Amino acid sequence: MSDLVDVTILGSGCAGNTAAIYTARANLNPLVLEGHEPGGQLSITTEVENFPGFPEGIQGPLLVQSMKAQAERFGATYKAGRVARAELSQKPITLELEDGETVRTRTLIIATGASARWLNLPHEQMLIGRGVSSCATCDGFFFRGKKMMVIGGGDSAMEEANFLSRFGSEVAVVHRSDNFRASKIMLDRARNNPKIQFLTNTVVEDVYDVTKGEVTGVKLRNVKTHEVYDREVSGFFVAIGHIPNTKPFASQLDLDPDGYIVSHGGARTNITGVFHAGDVQDRTYRQAITAAGAGCMAAIEVERHLEAEGH
Ligand code: NDP
């Protein structure tokens, strides 16, 4: 059993790191549990062009590493680990980690973010790491000179397609309609890229070849013409959004139907002493800078809460 800590932060993306900087500077010695993807979504992105203060842009991993270094400078402790079970209503809050360790904490900031959504194709999961991926930055390099495909019509899909075009012989963007959620600037950039083709009004029926143990092609269906056809591809990148990481808290926190934390004003959840920050609650803005802002808000609320409780 660990010592009682003032504040534990779950997640080490922009929200968690910013909460760590603020609570560390308030002398609260925050414990940050880094989660399954240390650094969060920025750790698997490339250039971030819209984070204020970096006129030439900054690499996503560098941005989060710098935030972490800043928090550590003021006394934040980072620890690898994920919560398996949590008892949020009793005080102190008790967290049981996947490795069996228990953390007791006066307050909790949940900044666990959101994870990649998959298409749930028959052979998708068994081919992850063998041609199926949700991270172009991580895996694009493996498909040099090969044919690749990106699924989705949002900014993530456009960003991944542009990135992959550096490596592949061609990149096909497959989108289920011809309405794109992607911002105009990102969509235009992909459209103007000679290596990128668009297959709109098209869905993926399956990805194969299972017998060879690596992706060799996909079965596609045009939803307007109903034509079903195969296409050769080696790299299959899914970029269709994210699912909030709230599973360990599902029976205790107010969640919306998609699993996002419902805010009870500011950074507050329905449970006293438990706060939210970043994409785990925000399904609207989902930007690095808004997640950082949310981390700051949660940290300030923690400070005020602890002060009001006399700690
Ligand atoms: P979005 O929710 O914006 O887009 C998801 C896309 O996937 C949509 O085109 C959606 O289609 C499609 N989709 C969802 N489910 C399925 C399915 N089951 N089968 C087929 N297609 C599906 O997610 P993103 O990850 O693209 O972006 C999330 C947020 O992050 C946005 O706010 C975006 O602006 C931001 N972002 C910003 C970047 C930047 O500025 N550099 C880079 C990447 C993301 P449909 O529209 O039909 O529902």
Task: Give a written overview of the molecule.
With 311 residues, this protein is α/β, with parallel strands linked by helices. It has two domains: 4-116 and 242-308, 3-Layer(bba) Sandwich (FAD/NAD(P)-binding domain); 125-238, FAD/NAD(P)-binding domain. It contains six helices and 19 strands. The chain has helices spanning 14-25, 60-73, 136-139, 155-164, 184-191, 288-308, and strands at residues 4-10, 31-33, 47-48, 58-59, 77-79, 83-87, 93-97, 102-110, 114-116, 132-133, 147-151, 170-174, 196-199, 202-208, 217-222, 228-232, 235-238, 242-244, 274-276. The radius of gyration is 21 Å and the shape is elongated. Bound molecules: NADPH dihydro-nicotinamide-adenine-dinucleotide phosphate. NADPH dihydro-nicotinamide-adenine-dinucleotide phosphate (NDP) binds next to helix 4.
Through-space gap between termini: 21 Å
Order of helices and strands: EHEEEHEEEEEEHEHEHEEEEEEEH
Q: Over the alpha carbons, how many angstroms does the gyration radius reach?
A: 21 Å
Q: Which ranges are low-confidence, i.e. pLDDT below 50, for 5 or more consecutive residues?
A: none
Q: Can you count the beta strands?
A: 19
Look at the structure and name the CATH superfamily of the largest domain.
FAD/NAD(P)-binding domain
Strand content: 25-35%
Count of DSSP H/I helices: 6
Present as ligands are: NADPH dihydro-nicotinamide-adenine-dinucleotide phosphate
Average of pLDDT: 95
Helix content: 10-25%
